[in-house]
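To assess whether ligand presence alters the predicted conformation, the chain was also submitted together with pyridoxal-5'-phosphate. Input:
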Amino acid sequence: MIYLDHHATTPLDPRVFEAMKPFFLEKFGNAASREHEFGREAADAVEAARARVAALIGADESEIVFTSGATESDNLAIKGHRRQDSRDKIVTVATEHPAVLDSCAAVERASNLYVIHLRPGSDGLVDPAKIKAAVDERTLLVSVMFANNEIGVLQDIPAIGALCKERGAIFHTDAAQAAGKVPIDVRAMDIHLLSLSAHKMHGPKGIGALYVRKRIPRVKLQPLIDGGGHEGGLRSGTLNVPAIVGFGAACEIARSEMSAEAKRLGKLRDKLWRGLSRGLDLVTLNGHPDQRLPGNLNVSFKFVESESLMMALAGIAVSSGAACTTTKAEPSHVLKALGLPEDLARSSIRFGLGRFTTAEEIDTVVERVVAAVKKLRKLSPLYKAGK
Ligand SMILES: *Cc1c(COP(=O)(O)O)cnc(C)c1O
């Protein structure tokens, strides 16, 4: 089995697992029970992990709120705002993750806020001029993801941050795919709110964080979950100590290995693209060729249905760009927003490389994909006619 679906989730790094283990068994204390040693031990571990998460994005420890993952962080970042009379607009992008799009839609239904969805260019990037035109003195919140989970493109976050600062709008970015893969500095990039997920960076599932800026400006949010007042009142509930410790370890490893790992993955990704584009005709890369995550490749194989191709690739875990939402396979909203014709959107495959991906695996994948696409096209009257 070869796993190339690292945008969906990543395997736990064994070093992360080792760090977590004691907190399931002997170190089981409640981090809120500071009156005894069991609780203090857990609380100290949580604070050490918080510092590691903060260090990955250039934040202060006090600005990290632990959540159940990036979905919850996106919900809190978007739904946590009190309506202001002077600012009633949210600006976001059509290619965002459903956690952002659906949170925006919920806010729009529940309050008098209205949402504007910007369209990216055909390369997946939002033109900062478009954002400049949309963000004004009535804009409360701007939410633009750091890296896209399907096509891997990296938006111009510093430019968007600077613009939001100038217009007095709050800037949220979903960095679930970007964190640990590319450098992030919330201060230099003028980010106010940032969503993280541990399981996208070789940490455990069910844990994430929201960075909430404390100074210049101090961002005030309303909690989604009320209770004992954990996490500065923003997220009540007993802390998941083993998961938080694992998240901290994952951040520390990602931070120390990021630059070397980005180079390694970038080379493997380029090797994969070279192999596919040399071995086959009518293959196209979706998304900007360079402004993308080092481990992402999204390719359309014209005249081949992605579902059939994935079936032919048994033993290789990839994902179709056409994510199945319900029973009906809808073409991906991301590829549609790029203006990709429906047939190309339905023939796209997302390759996601990760920490344990090897050059040998890439060789095997190139061989298998090239053979499978050739075989499927042989059966396609459209391919013969279209040639
Ligand atoms: C995976 C992902 C999420 C959801 O994160 P969870 O921690 O699984 O809730 C949100 N946004 C993006 C961009 C993602 O890739």
